[in-house]
Design a protein that fits this description.
seven-stranded mixed sheet, 20 helices, six-stranded parallel sheet, Rossmann fold, alpha/beta
Length: 472
């Protein structure tokens, strides 16, 4: 069987690579097509002649995927399967007439079962984790247990990207996952829904063995350009025992700078010191809001200002650079609350400030919180776009000023001398187009610095992902 995955961003997707490794282990052929417009994807579909086309979508990106799916269906009968976060948490995706199947939760088992079923002309209606249409009704099957031993999964199949797209192969930044799952239940995240989905189906937080991870990284280092390892785990530092063993091996065997995500409460002096010795170049740490009450009550993120400040001090002492994740436009947030977020970033000397606009995605607790606020209006979920940097779907006081502040956030943090001017005057001016350009410029500069990219590589990356032509 031939399975073709389509995407609209020039980036390696770990989920797709894991699915490909499982499918190839069962003798199937897998390919990836990249492009925003169907015009650039149809040649790939024609030349590969797939038996199944897959899309993995987040909320917002599903709009692009549905549009492409509709054009595929207009000229062929190739079955289409959707997967990823949007399918998992917005199950009515199966009701779209251009979607034949939708996967919920972990995809390795379900995609293998579905392809086997299609190959043998069998009825797939009882496959766990699968949603489908049958006889005019929608079937939504329950999920199978979580994969307990992650080492049973083959290494992600990187060849589908690196051997076919020179631009992605030549990028010396490669992405890895040491484990799966998150122990926290922040209101703005889908993790609480994941925990409910898999209640009684196994441990949500699981890890590959340190030895598995090291072997995978060394294999990539041997075969492809590798100058920066990026771990995509939600909280890389959550399991201290696992972490210390891994960092010891990484320091002695890999010796490549790396970046990872941390939760401030996990960054002890010992952890920060071990990360630094192992070659950690940068960490991503969620501040979200500089207002502790909003962080606790609205976002359910149980991290205090003191946790954040202490973690930053420890990281700086070990020469580890800090990228902070921040959000503006929280329900009930005032301008003074938003200014606190800037001030906290200045206080901890953030190296790479990153700031989005809160999106209360469908079925999350933050969406429920917003709906219970009588003085806040929200657009329908269908209006969510692929980006959380452009605008807010919330209608509340001072939102225009808060959106402007988000566009100028990098300058306010990195050039604090400008902060009084920004908060006193600039955010009040109707210069949306100008501020969008400033945001794009500072976003590109921050991305270039925190990924150790040259200006030329950053320019090529930006052009690729603005045009998204499916050429190598």
């Amino acid at each position: 069987m031939k399975i073709l995955f389509l995407q609209n961003f020039w980036h390696e997707h770990l989920g797709t690579m894991y699915l490909s490794s499982v499918l190839k282990s069962k003798g199937h052929q897998v390919a990836v097509g990249i492009g925003r417009d169907y015009f650039y994807l149809k040649d790939k579909i024609k030349s590969f002649s797939p038996n199944l086309i897959g899309f993995s979508c987040t909320t917002g990106d599903h709009l692009w995927a549905l549009e492409v799916a509709s054009k595929i269906k207009a000229s062929s009968n190739i079955p289409i399967v959707f997967g990823g976060p949007h399918s998992t948490y917005t199950p009515d995706i199966i009701e779209n007439r251009n979607v034949d199947y939708a996967c919920v939760g972990e995809g390795e088992g379900v995609i293998a079962d579905l392809v086997t079923s299609l190959k043998n002309n069998e009825d797939p209606s009882a496959i766990p984790n699968l949603m489908l249409k049958k006889d005019g009704t929608y079937i939504r099957n329950s999920v199978r247990p979580l994969i307990n031993n992650l080492d049973d999964i083959p290494f992600p199949d990187r060849s589908i990207y690196y051997d076919n797209f020179k631009f992605i192969n030549d990028n010396p930044i490669k992405h890895f996952m040491a484990g799966r799952g998150c122990m926290f239940e922040c209101n703005y995240c889908y993790n609480h829904l994941w925990m409910d989905l898999y209640k009684g189906k196994g441990h949500v937080v699981r890890y590959h063995s340190p030895e598995y991870c090291i072997e995978e990284i060394l294999e990539v280092k041997k075969r492809y350009p590798l100058e920066l390892v990026v771990f995509e785990d939600d909280t890389f530092t959550a399991n201290k025992k696992w972490l210390m063993h891994f960092l010891e091996l990484y320091r002695s065997k890999v010796q490549v700078p790396f970046a990872c995500n941390v939760q401030a409460v996990t960054v002890t002096e010992e952890v920060a010191n071990s990360l630094g010795k192992a070659g950690c170049f940068r960490i991503n740490m969620g501040l979200e809001s500089g207002d502790e009450n909003l962080r606790y009550i609205v976002l359910n993120k149980k991290v205090s200002d003191e946790h954040i400040i202490k973690a930053a001090e420890r990281l700086h002492r070990n020469k580890i650079r800090i990228l902070t994740n921040n959000m503006l436009g929280l329900p009930g947030e005032t301008l003074e609350n938003a200014f606190k977020t800037v001030k906290l970033n200045i206080k901890i000397k953030t190296d790479y400030p990153w700031c989005s606009l809160l999106q209360p995605y469908p079925n999350t607790k933050i969406e429920e919180y917003v709906k219970n606020c009588k003085n806040i209006k929200m657009s329908e979920s269908k209006e969510f776009q692929h980006t959380f940097f452009k605008d807010s779907v919330l209608d509340q006081p001072n939102m225009k000023e808060i959106v402007n502040l988000q566009k100028l956030f990098y300058l306010a943090v990195k050039l604090p001398i400008l902060f009084p001017l920004i908060k006193g005057l600039l955010i009040k001016l109707p210069l949306k187009s100008v501020y969008n350009l400033i945001f794009l410029a500072t976003f590109a500069y921050r991305y270039m610095r925190c990924h150790r990219m040259s200006p030329m590589k950053m320019l090529v990356f930006s052009i690729r992902n603005s045009r998204l032509y499916s050429k190598t």
